[in-house]
Every structure is written in C-alpha cells, then in structure tokens.
Amino acid sequence: MDLGYEKAFQPVYKEYFIHSFRHMTNEYIQSRLKDLGFKLKVIGEDEQTGQCPCCFHYSIDFGEDGFCDICPVCFWENGGNEPNHMSLEEAQKNFKNFGAMSKSYLQFIDPEGGKKYKKEHYTK
Asked: pLDDT tens digit string along 11-39?
C-alpha cells in the first residue's frame, strides 16, 4: 500500500465528507456512525441552513446561496414556480400525499431525507 498516495488524497476525502453531510443533523450522522459500528459522539453547531418552501425541511443552502438548490427530500427547486412547472401549493399538496413534489420525481428523492434534515412543522 502506498501511504503517500493515500495521504495525498486526505484533503479530497475530507472535502467529500464535509459536502456529503451538509445540512444533516448531528443526531442523524451519529446514528449512521453507530450503525456502522462506531461509538462516537457528534458535536458542534449545526450550520445555518435554508428551509425548503415545499416540504419545510432545512435541506438547502441559506439565503441567496440556496437559490436554485434542489431539495433532496421533495425535489423542489428553490427558485419559484417556474423551474418546477407547478405552483408551490400544488407541490406541497403532492408532497403531503405521496412524498415528493411530483410523482415523476419520486425516483430522485433521498429515501432517508426526512430523517437527515431538521423540519419545522408548518400549518396553514
């Protein structure tokens, strides 16, 4: 095993993991590590995260950085109705009925998304 090669890629691995776990709760990450046999406590402040206007999970970038982000929980593209080809109200109804903004996007949503991201309960 070439340890120099492995060490050279450590920054790449680190960046990959940081990006992969963005917006996830510490509790979710800790539970996944436990499932893998690691007994670790995940600590630290959650980063400021934007809330998806469709499913209300905190799963997109905050503020302007979240513009055009696609929510992994419901597949709503944060940018208004135009990129989604439906109204927000219609997408919210669809999410409530079958778990995605549209049935055609069920194949793209993260099946564990509802567990990974904080959610604020919203009632109209």
From this structure: 887 787 777 778 888 899 899 989 999 88
